[in-house]
Amino acid sequence: MFRYRRYRVFLVFAIFTTLALYRFSGSHTWDEAPTEEESRAQNVQTKSLSWNPRLLNEVVQETRPVLVEVPAAETSQALVTPPPIASISRPVQKAPPELHTSSKPHTPSESVSLAEPTHTEIQNSADTPKVMIPDQGDVIAEHGEGRVEVSPLPSNVKPIYWKKLPEHFPIPSESTIQLPTGSSKPIPKIQYAFTEESAESKADREGKLRVIKDAFTNAWSGYKEHAWLQDELSPVSGGFRNPFAGWGATLVDSLDTLWIMGLKTEFEEAVQAVKKIDFTTSPRGDIPLFETTIRYLGGLIAAYDISGQKYETLLKKAVELAEILMGAFDTPNRMPLTYYFWRPTFASQPHRAGGRVVLAEIGSLSVEFTRLAQLTGEPKYYDAIARITDALEQFQNQTRLPGMWPTYLDASGCKKPDYSKPVEAPETHGLVDNQPLHFKEENPEAKEEILLKLPKPITFIAGEPGKGRIQNWDNATIVGDLMKEDTGSLSKVKRQLEVPNAALTESTVPSTVMDNLPSATPSALELPQCAEQGFAEVSEYIIESYTLGGMSDSTYEYLPKQYLLLGGLADQYRTMYEASMDVVKEHLIFRPMLPGNEDILFSGALNVPAPSEDDKVGELEAENAHLTCFAGGMLGMGAKIFGREEDLEIAKKLTEGCVWSYKVTTTGIMPESFIGVPCDSMTHCEWNETKWWDAIDPWAESRLTSYEQQLQTYNADLASASASFAAAMAAATAAPSETVVEQPKATPTTPTIELQKRQLEMSGTDEPPSRIVNLNEEPKVSEMPTPTLPSFPVLYSPKPPLSHEEYVKNRIQEERLPEGFVSIRSKKYILRPEAIESVWYMYRITGDTHWREVGWDMFTAIKTHTSTTYGNSAIDDVTKMAPELLDEMESFWLAETLKYFYLLFAEESLVSLDEWVLNTEAHPFRRPR
Is residue 321 a part of any domain in this protein? Predict the structure, then answer.
């Protein structure tokens, strides 16, 4: 017999299951694959939602359609793909197509493309290029923030091409700064006078040279096979990356290394490939001026020089690239945009340089543009960088640390006016009583009119009769025409200004303004613009950093090198260099405290706060960074050419500091950056383990004090809680006694009992009957609930801290800190060249074979831990026994690091320091004779 109540749950479940199977089966079964048309539609929908994870999740969670009639939805609309989210990871691409290598002529009509960003998108990103933000402890940017991974354009999107545009701020020919002329001044020799080596020494040297060359040819073969004409090889996976506009950075960067190593066939093949690079187009919207100059422009010029100036293609491509880069200098003060948005829509508008630029990115262009001017006879290239040099010279003694420049500076040339004060309108504007402009603020109920809060200075410039042009100089963009009849309300003005975050609301513009706009006069209405200025600090309220390391390095490096390249004819480079090095020696260079009492030096950073009554100049950051290791070579070269012999000893000790930093790690490779313990004296410094431990754990005493305070608070809370609990327990009442619930006694009759018995027998079911009260049983005693007793408060006792000794030993073990290291900011090694660069300079300057010995140890360690099938890879942690390969091989591995290792063991006449000047990417330029 079916019992409904027992199986009703299963019945409901069966019904819903049947309906679900029918509803979701669709036109095909689960085993059937969707049709191609269905898959395509599904992919389009997924792509259109994937850019918004929150929206995608909401859609996925919806399992039943909501059918609502929306008339607008019935109209066919074009599909608009939303912008993708920028990926944090660096994708590895396979099967490299020859991107941006088209040599075919292109017409201006091809400059229109779906890939061109809108005006707003470009304007919002002009001063702050979209770059990947490194995680905590990631590598320090080499000189700035130039790496941006780009992917090839889709095949259905036409590329945009750069085109030559009229300059907004041209330099009159009579004002162009010319190259210094005349015979070169006598400059002391830099390179040591080497004598002939023994046969045994030569055999040993040449054997090491072959090993270094093999490492280069292996990496070059991997690049040629898996990343040809791309920027970088991924040496583990065999893929490639394009972080520098996709113009074949490794190819161009390696040209002169191919020649130096005698790989002439490979060199000529690479020169033919350079012809295919089209610098007038890129999937990347901005050009990092500094990185492009040192890698591409420097690489092309150096390859032309080192090969005897026989390959005209190299110079032609250098000029082609330089013409594009010159657009970045078209600003009111001729200071360049360090990230140049080259596409015509943006490049056709006037711009100012940035208000917060990296020192190295604006101060390290001189060597490349000077050499190009020498080779081409075109003075505009020298003029471009000479103006930067003049601005640096003027600013050098106006900084918080006179003699040096901060890592960030304001290059806009625009001193912002103080808009907190009323804006006085000039009499020529015809305003009533010459009163300042006032409008209502954001609050529409405000009774008083206050001064219009302009976020950017705006100028109205008259054009045709009845029409005026609006120009926003701070954003440096023309945004449209202002018609008299269209200016009845601020909402219309706001729409035409298109200034982000402008504080304009629905309010009437004073009629006196519009009525007095002249029809065709030079200026209709001019609100105050910025006052002209040279380089300046970014803000008076921030702490500035002064260093020879990242974001500053090559600005100082280029001062003596530019002096050499100009044959000593420009004294300002010598005076600027010497003034800066005097400050470096006084405030930045320090002796670290080390267990072996080694007499070596590091160059740290000085953090200088805003000026105050405190006499302290700044706080020394006792850092030794791989990027700073170039300083030994620079000071050594400066010591020779400027007669600063005392600097040569400093140069040796700085270089030894980097060699020591290699030796003490597990891998034998120096990390990106670490902090040490500075000595109080440069001449006497004994190892003190207690002082080292105190530097690792400076908060031991405060940690113990904090624990004791917490313990006192806990004990007080415990005593208070105990007293309160005892009082509450005493106040609690005793449990009530049992009470009998009287029930009415009735004498049941027999029929009643029989009836109950009869009903039980006639129920006809196996189910238990309803509860039957036995009227004859004894009455039950009802127990009253016991009152709730008070609970003891929850208290958490403080955990005893680690002792000073336990804390320090744990940190040393967990972080694998060598003796003398306080902390390691970044444990990576990304195949950097700066340490071996200074080792090479020291060998060429002193002739001491010690530098070859330590250089070989460095090469052996690097080769052991970075070698891959296709080349060499950056590693994640130099303190590990077996570091992880990061699948990244920057172009400077072939352009710089291996070149310096090779030149260290090559014959000393190859790239002599008395004949060549190497740029910051190790590209050699011929010195004037």
Answer: no
Residue 593's closest CA among 532, 649, 676, 495? 676
Distance from C-alpha of 580 to C-alpha of 393, rounded to nearest angstrom: 11
Model pLDDT, residue 821 = 98
Residues β-bridged to residue 472: 458, 477
Q: What is the residue whose two structure tokens read 């040096």? A: 404
Which amino acid appears at position 865 of this protein?
H
- pLDDT grade for 492, boundaries at 50, 70 and 90: very low
Alpha-carbon distance of 826 to 138, in angstroms, equals: 6
**Distance, CA of 877 to CA of 830 (rounded, Å):** 10
**Alpha-carbon torsion angle 128, 134, 140, 144, nearest 10:** -20
The two three-digit tokens of residue 413, written as one number: 């040339």
Residue 290 CA to residue 287 CA, distance in Å, equals: 9
- Give pLDDT, residue 762: 44
In angstroms, rounded to a whole number, what is the distance separating the alpha carbons of residues 340 and 325?
8
Q: Is residue 517 part of a domain?
A: yes
Please report which helix (H) or strand (E) contains residue 92, including its range.
none
- The answer on whether 897 is annotated among ligand-binding residues is no
Is the Cβ–Cβ distance between 917 and 564 less than 8 Å?
Answer: yes
Both structure tokens of 805: 């000794």
User: What torsion do the CA atoms of 548, 552, 556, 557 make, to the nearest 10 degrees?
Assistant: 90
Separation CA 358–CA 290 (nearest Å): 10
Number of H helices, E strands in the chain: 29, 26
Q: Which string of b and e fits 64-82 if b means at least 16 CB within 10 Å?
A: eeeeeeeeeeeeeeeeeee
Quick check: 356 and 127 in contact, CB under 8 A? Answer: yes
Q: Is residue 519 part of a domain?
A: yes
Residue 841 CA to residue 632 CA, distance in Å, equals 8
Q: Please say whether the beta carbons of 538 and 410 come within 8 A.
A: yes
Sign (positive/negative) of CA torsion 54, 56, 62, 64? positive
Average pLDDT over residues 7-14: 61
d(C-alpha 305, C-alpha 929), whole Å: 14
Q: Are 224 and 878 in contact (CB under 8 A)?
A: no
User: To 10 degrees, what angle do helices 571-587 and 553-565 make?
Assistant: 150
The tokens describing 783, both together, are 């127990």
Residue with tokens 């009470």: 739
Number of Cβ atoms within 10 Å of the Cβ of 817: 19
Q: Report residue 596 as tokens.
A: 């072996």
Give dist(CA 94, CA 91) in Å, integer.
Answer: 10
Structure token digits, residue 245? 């506009």
Domain count, the chain: 1
Pick the closest to residue 252 from 281, 279, 274 (CA basis): 274
- Domain contains 670: no
What is the reported pLDDT for 325? 98
Coil vs helix vs strand at 532: strand
Structure tokens at 1: 């017999």
- Provide mean pLDDT across the span 206-231: 98
Q: Which domain holds residue 511?
A: 450-529
CB-CB contact of 547 with 913 (8 Å): no
Nearest 5°: the CA angle 350, 353, 355 is 130
Q: Residue 91: pLDDT band by 50, 70, 90 thresholds?
A: very low
In this structure, the chain runs to a length of 929
Catalytic residues: 291, 553, 672, 834
Is residue 224 within 8 A of residue 263, CB to CB? The reply is no
Q: Are 471 and 529 in contact (CB under 8 A)?
A: no
Measured between alpha carbons, how far is 842 from 162 in angstroms, rounded to an integer?
44
585-638 pLDDT tens trace: 999 999 999 999 999 999 999 999 988 767 789 999 999 999 999 999 999 999
pLDDT in tens, 363-379: 999 999 999 999 999 99
779/372: higher pLDDT: 372
